[in-house]
Specification:
13 strands; 8 helices; globular; five-stranded mixed sheet; alpha/beta
Length: 265
């Protein structure tokens, strides 16, 4: 009897969580444990991403070659998703039209079942075209490259067989020009300002003459992890108020001294 109960327990556990990929397992009972896919940012910030071959409608492209010393936004999605993935991709595409053409954008599927046809359908539905701008890369990866790339940035996901959906982080990962993870921004509706600042942030290790002004602007902000956005640095506000107060005091003292001298004369 004990052997039977033990066998039954082991079978139930195996069916509940059947691991078959890095950071990914199939759930047959429909539970949604979001904590499982939480990214441990401290372990990956500053780490170099894996180089992979991306399959596109125009052929294979090396991810590192596409980045080509430019700050890059990387978004993982699965192309049969009809909820948050399309919304995030659309918002990023819309924001990119107002930002520097020097920035790079990459959308890759973490679903090994995706192919060029599902990718094409995703592009037409969300971008209205398959002819993307030169600074955009949309593609699919082999099973091995999915594992290597997601593992290098701490991205995890799992599949709920009952609901036919993936549970995964809704995050845009910003990569430095030399291919290192620099920032994670969460949510489908990223503001254009935050996207731009994250791109600037991604270049802080190797500033160029072209982005020195941007880095000065970035110095006025700090990244708020709780809200996944950039906010005005409060120390600068207090410093500004202090300088304003000092200037006001000196001005009042000057005018008072001048007025007193005129009255005396």
């Amino acid at each position: 009897m004990r052997i039977f109960m033990l066998s039954l327990t082991l079978f139930a556990l195996a069916m509940a969580r059947e691991p078959y990929e890095y950071g990914r397992y199939t759930s047959y009972y429909g539970e949604q444990d979001v904590s499982v896919v939480k990214i441990q940012e401290d372990l990956y910030i500053g780490k170099e991403i894996a180089n992979v071959d991306v399959k596109t409608l125009k052929g294979k492209v090396s991810l590192k070659e596409f980045i080509s010393n430019k700050p890059t936004a990387l978004l993982f999605a699965y192309y049969t998703c009809d909820t948050v993935c399309p919304i995030t991709a659309q918002n990023l595409y819309k924001a990119s039209k107002s930002l520097s053409k020097e920035y790079r954008y990459v959308i890759l599927s973490f679903d090994e079942r995706d192919n060029l046809e599902t990718m094409k359908s995703f592009m037409l539905k969300n971008f209205g075209t398959t002819d993307m701008p030169e600074n955009w890369l949309v593609g699919v990866l082999s099973k091995e490259d999915i594992r290597n790339l997601t593992q290098s940035v701490g991205y995890k996901f799992y599949y709920i067989d009952k609901d036919k959906i993936f549970i995964h982080p809704n995050v845009t990962i910003f990569i430095s020009p030399d291919g290192k993870v620099m920032r994670y921004l969460y949510g489908p509706f990223l503001k254009e300002k935050d996207i731009n600042l994250a791109f600037i942030d991604a270049q802080r290790e190797k500033p160029s003459i072209n982005n020195l002004v941007d880095l000065v602007v970035l110095a006025c902000y700090r990244y708020d992890h709780a809200r996944s956005r950039y906010v005005i640095d409060p120390t600068l506000i207090f410093a500004g108020l202090g300088i304003f107060g000092l200037f006001s005091t000196l001005s009042l003292a000057y005018f008072y001294s001048r007025h007193k001298k005129e009255v005396h004369q």
